[in-house]
Amino acid sequence: MGEKKEVAGQAASGARRDPVIDIARFFCLILVVFSHCMMVSPVLHPDGTVTTENTLMEQRWFEPVLWVLQVMPLFFVLGGITGLESWRRLRARGGTGVDYAQLRLLRLVRPATALLAVMFLGLIAAQLLGVHPQVVQLMATGAGMPLWFLAAYLAAQLSVPLLARMHARAPWLTLSALVAAVITVDSLRGAFPILVSLNMVFVWCAVQQFGFFIADGFLAGRSSGWLVGLVAGSNLLLGLVTGAGVYSGNMIVNLNPPNLCMLLLGLSQAATLQLIRPAVAWLARARWVLWVVAVAGRRSMTVYLWHLPLLVGMSGLLLLTSFPKPAAGTAEWWWARPLVLLAVVVLLLPVLLLFGRLEERPTAAVHARGRAPAAVVTAGVVVFIPMLDAALNGLTVALLGGGAACFMLAVLLLGRVVEPSRTPLAGPKTAAGEGHQPPLPEPGIRANVES
Questions:
Q1: CA distance 90 to 101
Q2: Distance (Å, rounded) from C-alpha 365 to C-alpha 362?
């Protein structure tokens, strides 16, 4: 018990990186890439039309498996842990919410800018070369699927300074208010379908709050039996609401848009993370494991953003060749999945070499510190415009170009990372009542700070 509290305290103070969090994020990333390679299956029909089939979704056995493999809530739990720790350390050095927003926007927008620009130029070239418009649109859609996560994750991360203050003053009231908002939106989804999009914010911010509780060490002091009970209880409630027909039992359906089921899954996954912490910490003793996780972690956003567009683009281009195309779901199709996964990994390697460093290199300064708040707010608005358009109307080649331009403008507005004062806040407590936090251990701020 004492060891668990010590680990949690170190994580919350920001004294060192928590390898358990890094390994959990690495596991989620690998699982997402693997599952997408098992799902995507473009089909060229005799009349020349092209559609995309999700082969796994057509397998009856896959629906219950999704209760385990749907790890998107865990991404937001982990984001809550690292986001709160980063915000507290930045605040201890005299940083503001604007500084935090600048860090997060640069960390996430710069890699996405490269993706949108390359996709736009590539698809324009494909159109000029006479590639069928449906194949071009298929590849454009492939680029859009990771962007919904970027929009949701950005919204949740940008809310960290505000939600951290609310969490410090009334943690349970804050979480309860978010849960109530989720249930209210779900209840009104039949009468007002447009409202369901609000849960892209409410659900993921609520799941992110679970990460806040972990960062505070709330779960570290709980027994294994208590954690098992929390996992069992959340899954039992999930079974009740899906079994009664209130929600679908398919966790992919419940993801688009997210609803209460994602909240319950997030609670279960947060408790599971704490439950298996000793085993993961034991795994982290192997230096090669930490090396692999560290290397992947520095390029995680590039891997996430690029793997599905590369997969869909490769599959779409293969439709134009005489390469064997086994029917989806057949034995030949399943045997081809490892080759598909290998091909995606091979295609990712040059992408990581060319664009991976965008996750860590600040651009040259284009504004003085006094203009930072207005510039950061403007950059945030500019970034969300094309993402909202894509969510409401779908992603097209034209929107890819407009999105790339908006993202480039946002990066220029954000400029380089401006280092706040290194003087820690005085007194035993901050103005928000969060308690005194130690200064950052490193003498600088980089755009890829995640913990």
A1: 11
A2: 9
Number of Cβ within a 10 Å radius of residue 412? 15
| DSSP per residue, 320-389 | TS-S--PPTTSHHHHHHHHHHHHHHHHHHHHHHHHHGGGGT-PPPP-S-GGGHHHHHHHHHHHHHHHHHH
Q: Tell me what pLDDT residue 388 has.
A: 81
By the 10 Å C-beta count (0-12 exposed, 13-18 middle, 19+ buried), 373 is classed as middle
For residues 162 and 155, give the distance between their C-alpha atoms in angstroms, rounded to a whole number. 12
Instruction: Note the pLDDT of residue 48.
Output: 61
Q: H/E element holding 172? A: helix 171-187
Identify the residue whose tokens are 């969090």: 21
Q: Does position 271 have pLDDT exceeding 50, yes or no? A: yes
Which tokens go with 348? 């990712």
Nearest to 82 by CA among 381, 300, 328, 304: 300
What average pLDDT does the segment 328-337 reach?
Answer: 81
CB contact set of 21 (below 8 Å; sequence gap of 6+): 11, 78, 81, 82, 451
The per-residue b/e assignment along 314-339, b for 16 or more CB within 10 angstroms, e otherwise, is: bbbebbeeeeebeebeeeeeeeeeee
DSSP state of 250: -
pLDDT band, very low/low/confident/very high, at 319 (cuts 50, 70, 90): confident
* Contact criterion met (CB below 8 Å) for 211 and 77: yes
The bridge status of strand 50-54 relative to strand 40-44 is antiparallel
User: Around Cβ 217, how many Cβ atoms within 10 Å?
Assistant: 17
Beta bridge partners of 41: 53
Within 10 angstroms of residue 269's Cβ, the number of other Cβ atoms is 26
pLDDT for the residue numbered 44: 64
Distance CA 256, CA 130 (A): 33
Q: For residue 379, what are its two tokens?
A: 């950059």
pLDDT digits (tens, 9 = 90+) for 374-414: 888 999 999 998 888 877 777 788 888 999 999 999 999 88
Q: What 3-state DSSP class applies to 1? A: coil
Q: Would you place residue 421 in the very low, low, confident or very high pLDDT band (cuts 50, 70, 90)? A: very low
Reading the block at residue 344, the tokens are: 């995606």
C-alpha 428: how far from its chain's center? 34
Least confident of 121-130, 238-247, 386-395: 386-395
